[in-house]
Amino acid sequence: MAPRIQVQIVLFLISILFFPCVLQGQQISLQKDTLVVAVAGSAPFVFEDGQGGGGIAVEIWDELANKQGWNYIFKTYNSVESALQSLNEGVSDLVVGPISITSNRVENYRFSQPFYNSSLAIVSRSAKMSFWDKIKPFFSIKLLIAVFVFLFILAIVGTLLWLAERKHSKDQFPEDPVDGIGNGMWLAIVTMSTTGYGDKAPITLAGRIIAGSWMIISIIFATSMVAGIASTLTLASLGTSPISNIEQLANKNVATIANSPSEVFIEEHNANALGVTSLEEAVSKLKNEEVAAVLYDRPQLLFHLKKVEDEELFMAKAEYYKQGYGFAFPLESSLVYEVNRALLELAEDQETDEIIDKYLKKEE
């Protein structure tokens, strides 16, 4: 009996020693059964309250995870970069949001197939022109200089005609310099415009040579003058015209979200990227004329324009740097295959389109 009692006592002591370890192992197993989902990004894909606020990316993940029967908890981050860093640190199992799939990122993370195809777009001011804005070009320095040069040339031609005709055609070109040169300028204007009233005409050989030369010169001069005036009026009105393509932003300040792929795109096109923390801040700088435009992902800009309903903001039709949004995983993650299969099922059942249309159909 004594040896049997001793064995029971030893077994009892062993169970007491190892019981906490068993409980700890069960807790670890339970923790592994619950995915930690990092949420980051901007509306309409992620709202500030990632769990309750929803958004395109969050709703797609909810639908996907529920069909797979996965348990998960959300952990929100202020930026996509900090959320991706949580994968490196082992804090999160995946990142949900408008995560751009770029060549640089695929070196460090694995991605699901895109659940949305996005692009970069430009938003600029499109203020309505006031009455003063419409007539202001007529008072520009360049236009006044052009008119002055035109009158000076007419004065020279008128003087030459008066000198050639004043002794032989006194009724048309009086000896008084003011009247005579004035009539000469009138003849030059009528000749240049090809009106041909016939009230004034040179009768001397010298006068006809001057008039004939002026006819040829005025064809070129008039064309250049009209083109110059038109150019001046066009350039003067560009200040209120919206930006329609990236080439118009060369050497100008452009606002975008800091550390986003759009920063690199702006710099590649010889513009100055001004990084901000939110679209609200970017649009505020645009309205205050601190920047010439805002360049960022098209769906976020569409959603923001609908929210603010500002008629002075204009989105260009041009789209650049088309890219896909997907979910990000650590390189060693085994979840990617199951997520891709589930995303395909959602797309085939058109459930993905239904979620996207709920947020963006009206804008597009």
From TrEMBL:
Keywords: Glycoprotein, Ion channel, Ion transport, Membrane, Receptor, Transmembrane, Transmembrane helix, Transport. GO terms for cellular component: membrane. Residues 34-362 form the Ionotropic glutamate receptor C-terminal domain. The chain crosses the membrane at residues 143-164, 214-238. It is a multi-pass membrane protein. It is found in: Membrane. Residues 34-363 form the Solute-binding protein family 3/N-terminal domain. Its main location: membrane. The keyword Flavoprotein does not apply. Pfam families: Lig_chan, SBP_bac_3. GO terms for molecular function: ligand-gated monoatomic ion channel activity. SMART domains: PBPb, PBPe. It comes from the Bacteria. PANTHER family: IONOTROPIC GLUTAMATE RECEPTOR (PTHR18966). This is ABC-type transporter, periplasmic subunit family 3.
